[in-house]
Specification:
The chain is of the alpha/beta class. The protein has 2 domains: 3-15 and 83-219, HAD superfamily/HAD-like (Rossmann fold, 3-Layer(aba) Sandwich); 17-78, DNA polymerase, domain 1. The chain is 46% helix and 14% strand. Helix 8 (167-175) links the parallel strand 4 and strand 5. Helix 1 (17-30) crosses helix 2 (37-43), helix 1 packs across helix 4 (62-77) and helix 3 packs across helix 4.
Length: 221
Amino acid sequence: MPHAALFDVDGTLADTNHLHVPCWWEAFRQAGHRVAMRDIHQAIGLGSGDLITHLLGADLDEEEVERIGAAHKTLYATYFDRLAAFEGAGDLLRALAGRGRRIVLATSASGGELAALRAAVDADDVIAGTASSDDVSEGKPAPEPVENALDIAGCSAAEAVFVGDSVWDMRAATRAGVPAVAVLSGGISRSDLEEAGAVAVYQDVADLLARLDSSPFARTE
Protein backbone atom coordinates (compact mmCIF):
# COMPACT_ATOMS: atom_id res chain seq x y z
CA MET A 1 0.00 0.00 0.00
CA PRO A 2 1.36 3.48 -0.85
CA HIS A 3 1.97 6.05 1.83
CA ALA A 4 0.50 9.53 1.45
CA ALA A 5 1.19 13.16 2.28
CA LEU A 6 -2.05 15.12 2.43
CA PHE A 7 -1.92 18.91 2.30
CA ASP A 8 -4.21 21.82 2.89
CA VAL A 9 -3.32 24.69 0.53
CA ASP A 10 -4.43 28.15 1.77
CA GLY A 11 -2.13 29.25 4.59
CA THR A 12 -0.16 26.00 4.33
CA LEU A 13 1.40 25.85 0.87
CA ALA A 14 0.23 29.28 -0.32
CA ASP A 15 0.44 32.64 1.46
CA THR A 16 -3.22 33.55 1.03
CA ASN A 17 -4.98 33.69 4.41
CA HIS A 18 -4.34 37.39 4.84
CA LEU A 19 -5.80 38.03 1.37
CA HIS A 20 -8.96 36.11 2.19
CA VAL A 21 -9.62 38.16 5.35
CA PRO A 22 -10.17 41.60 3.74
CA CYS A 23 -12.11 40.00 0.88
CA TRP A 24 -14.50 38.38 3.37
CA TRP A 25 -14.64 41.60 5.41
CA GLU A 26 -15.68 43.57 2.32
CA ALA A 27 -18.18 40.91 1.23
CA PHE A 28 -19.81 41.08 4.68
CA ARG A 29 -19.76 44.89 4.62
CA GLN A 30 -21.48 45.00 1.24
CA ALA A 31 -24.23 42.79 2.68
CA GLY A 32 -24.67 45.10 5.68
CA HIS A 33 -22.79 43.04 8.27
CA ARG A 34 -19.94 44.19 10.47
CA VAL A 35 -17.59 41.32 11.27
CA ALA A 36 -14.25 41.80 12.99
CA MET A 37 -11.24 40.81 10.91
CA ARG A 38 -9.86 38.77 13.81
CA ASP A 39 -13.02 36.63 13.81
CA ILE A 40 -12.81 36.21 10.05
CA HIS A 41 -9.19 35.14 10.33
CA GLN A 42 -10.03 32.48 12.89
CA ALA A 43 -12.69 31.09 10.52
CA ILE A 44 -10.43 30.84 7.46
CA GLY A 45 -10.19 27.20 6.45
CA LEU A 46 -13.92 26.56 6.58
CA GLY A 47 -15.77 26.23 3.30
CA SER A 48 -17.54 29.36 2.07
CA GLY A 49 -21.04 28.56 3.33
CA ASP A 50 -19.79 27.18 6.63
CA LEU A 51 -17.60 30.24 7.20
CA ILE A 52 -20.53 32.58 6.63
CA THR A 53 -22.93 30.74 8.93
CA HIS A 54 -20.17 30.27 11.53
CA LEU A 55 -19.76 34.05 11.71
CA LEU A 56 -23.34 35.22 11.14
CA GLY A 57 -25.46 32.38 12.47
CA ALA A 58 -27.10 29.28 11.04
CA ASP A 59 -30.51 30.94 10.60
CA LEU A 60 -29.21 33.20 7.81
CA ASP A 61 -31.24 33.21 4.61
CA GLU A 62 -29.75 30.83 2.03
CA GLU A 63 -29.88 33.44 -0.72
CA GLU A 64 -27.90 35.87 1.43
CA VAL A 65 -25.29 33.18 2.11
CA GLU A 66 -24.95 32.71 -1.64
CA ARG A 67 -24.69 36.47 -2.27
CA ILE A 68 -21.98 36.93 0.35
CA GLY A 69 -20.07 33.91 -0.94
CA ALA A 70 -20.29 35.19 -4.51
CA ALA A 71 -19.06 38.64 -3.45
CA HIS A 72 -16.04 37.11 -1.71
CA LYS A 73 -15.30 34.97 -4.74
CA THR A 74 -15.37 38.00 -7.03
CA LEU A 75 -13.16 40.07 -4.73
CA TYR A 76 -10.63 37.29 -4.18
CA ALA A 77 -10.43 36.50 -7.90
CA THR A 78 -8.69 39.85 -8.45
CA TYR A 79 -5.62 38.33 -6.75
CA PHE A 80 -5.46 35.10 -8.76
CA ASP A 81 -2.56 36.19 -10.97
CA ARG A 82 -0.54 37.31 -7.92
CA LEU A 83 -0.95 34.41 -5.50
CA ALA A 84 2.33 33.27 -4.00
CA ALA A 85 3.48 29.97 -2.54
CA PHE A 86 5.45 29.88 0.68
CA GLU A 87 9.17 29.36 0.28
CA GLY A 88 9.92 25.65 0.15
CA ALA A 89 6.36 24.55 -0.69
CA GLY A 90 7.17 22.89 -4.00
CA ASP A 91 10.47 21.56 -2.66
CA LEU A 92 8.69 19.88 0.25
CA LEU A 93 6.16 18.18 -2.03
CA ARG A 94 8.93 16.93 -4.31
CA ALA A 95 11.02 15.71 -1.38
CA LEU A 96 8.09 13.71 -0.05
CA ALA A 97 7.26 12.34 -3.50
CA GLY A 98 10.90 11.30 -3.78
CA ARG A 99 10.44 9.27 -0.60
CA GLY A 100 7.51 7.42 -2.13
CA ARG A 101 4.69 9.55 -0.74
CA ARG A 102 1.61 10.13 -2.87
CA ILE A 103 0.83 13.86 -2.67
CA VAL A 104 -2.85 14.79 -2.43
CA LEU A 105 -4.30 18.23 -1.77
CA ALA A 106 -7.35 18.54 0.49
CA THR A 107 -8.77 22.03 0.13
CA SER A 108 -12.00 24.01 0.16
CA ALA A 109 -10.82 25.81 -2.99
CA SER A 110 -12.17 24.78 -6.38
CA GLY A 111 -12.42 25.94 -9.98
CA GLY A 112 -10.34 28.95 -10.96
CA GLU A 113 -9.18 29.53 -7.39
CA LEU A 114 -7.76 26.03 -7.13
CA ALA A 115 -6.09 26.38 -10.53
CA ALA A 116 -4.45 29.64 -9.40
CA LEU A 117 -3.24 28.03 -6.18
CA ARG A 118 -1.76 25.06 -8.00
CA ALA A 119 -0.02 27.40 -10.43
CA ALA A 120 1.47 29.32 -7.48
CA VAL A 121 2.74 26.14 -5.78
CA ASP A 122 4.10 24.92 -9.13
CA ALA A 123 4.41 21.24 -8.22
CA ASP A 124 1.82 19.58 -10.45
CA ASP A 125 4.44 17.07 -11.54
CA VAL A 126 4.19 15.36 -8.12
CA ILE A 127 0.58 16.05 -7.11
CA ALA A 128 -1.40 12.81 -7.51
CA GLY A 129 -4.82 14.40 -7.02
CA THR A 130 -6.99 16.93 -5.26
CA ALA A 131 -9.94 16.55 -2.90
CA SER A 132 -11.75 19.85 -3.38
CA SER A 133 -14.96 21.32 -1.99
CA ASP A 134 -16.75 20.06 -5.12
CA ASP A 135 -16.09 16.46 -4.06
CA VAL A 136 -17.60 16.40 -0.57
CA SER A 137 -20.96 17.03 1.10
CA GLU A 138 -19.34 18.36 4.29
CA GLY A 139 -16.19 20.45 4.52
CA LYS A 140 -13.63 20.68 7.30
CA PRO A 141 -13.78 20.17 10.27
CA ALA A 142 -15.80 17.14 9.13
CA PRO A 143 -13.46 14.25 8.26
CA GLU A 144 -14.89 13.79 4.74
CA PRO A 145 -12.31 15.96 2.90
CA VAL A 146 -9.43 14.03 4.48
CA GLU A 147 -11.16 10.69 3.91
CA ASN A 148 -11.66 11.62 0.26
CA ALA A 149 -7.97 12.50 0.00
CA LEU A 150 -7.12 9.07 1.45
CA ASP A 151 -9.28 7.42 -1.20
CA ILE A 152 -7.45 9.34 -3.92
CA ALA A 153 -4.10 8.34 -2.42
CA GLY A 154 -5.19 4.72 -2.12
CA CYS A 155 -3.99 4.27 1.43
CA SER A 156 -5.23 3.95 4.98
CA ALA A 157 -5.27 6.66 7.64
CA ALA A 158 -2.34 4.95 9.40
CA GLU A 159 -0.21 5.33 6.25
CA ALA A 160 -0.79 9.06 5.83
CA VAL A 161 0.13 12.38 7.41
CA PHE A 162 -1.91 15.55 6.96
CA VAL A 163 -0.39 19.04 6.98
CA GLY A 164 -2.52 22.16 7.57
CA ASP A 165 -2.58 25.54 9.23
CA SER A 166 -6.01 25.88 10.85
CA VAL A 167 -7.87 24.31 13.75
CA TRP A 168 -10.39 23.06 11.16
CA ASP A 169 -7.59 21.17 9.40
CA MET A 170 -6.42 19.60 12.65
CA ARG A 171 -9.92 18.53 13.65
CA ALA A 172 -10.73 17.08 10.23
CA ALA A 173 -7.52 15.04 10.09
CA THR A 174 -7.88 13.84 13.68
CA ARG A 175 -11.48 12.76 13.09
CA ALA A 176 -10.32 10.83 10.02
CA GLY A 177 -7.65 9.10 12.11
CA VAL A 178 -4.75 10.75 10.28
CA PRO A 179 -1.83 12.30 12.22
CA ALA A 180 -2.15 16.08 11.89
CA VAL A 181 0.91 18.28 11.43
CA ALA A 182 0.46 22.04 11.78
CA VAL A 183 2.31 25.02 10.35
CA LEU A 184 2.12 28.49 11.91
CA SER A 185 2.19 30.28 8.55
CA GLY A 186 -1.58 30.72 8.51
CA GLY A 187 -1.45 32.89 11.61
CA ILE A 188 -3.12 30.54 14.10
CA SER A 189 -1.44 30.07 17.47
CA ARG A 190 0.54 26.98 18.40
CA SER A 191 -1.66 26.37 21.45
CA ASP A 192 -4.89 26.46 19.41
CA LEU A 193 -3.46 24.07 16.85
CA GLU A 194 -2.20 21.65 19.49
CA GLU A 195 -5.52 21.77 21.31
CA ALA A 196 -7.24 20.89 18.01
CA GLY A 197 -5.08 17.79 17.60
CA ALA A 198 -1.73 18.73 16.05
CA VAL A 199 0.91 16.11 16.84
CA ALA A 200 3.74 18.41 15.68
CA VAL A 201 3.97 22.13 14.86
CA TYR A 202 6.41 23.87 12.51
CA GLN A 203 6.94 27.50 11.61
CA ASP A 204 6.16 26.85 7.93
CA VAL A 205 6.72 24.32 5.17
CA ALA A 206 10.38 25.33 4.84
CA ASP A 207 10.88 24.50 8.53
CA LEU A 208 9.12 21.16 8.04
CA LEU A 209 11.32 20.39 5.03
CA ALA A 210 14.49 21.19 7.01
CA ARG A 211 13.40 18.82 9.80
CA LEU A 212 11.76 16.16 7.64
CA ASP A 213 13.91 13.32 8.98
CA SER A 214 12.61 13.86 12.53
CA SER A 215 9.03 14.69 11.54
CA PRO A 216 5.92 12.48 11.71
CA PHE A 217 6.56 11.67 8.04
CA ALA A 218 9.75 9.85 9.02
CA ARG A 219 7.96 8.01 11.81
CA THR A 220 5.35 6.57 9.43
CA GLU A 221 7.75 5.35 6.75
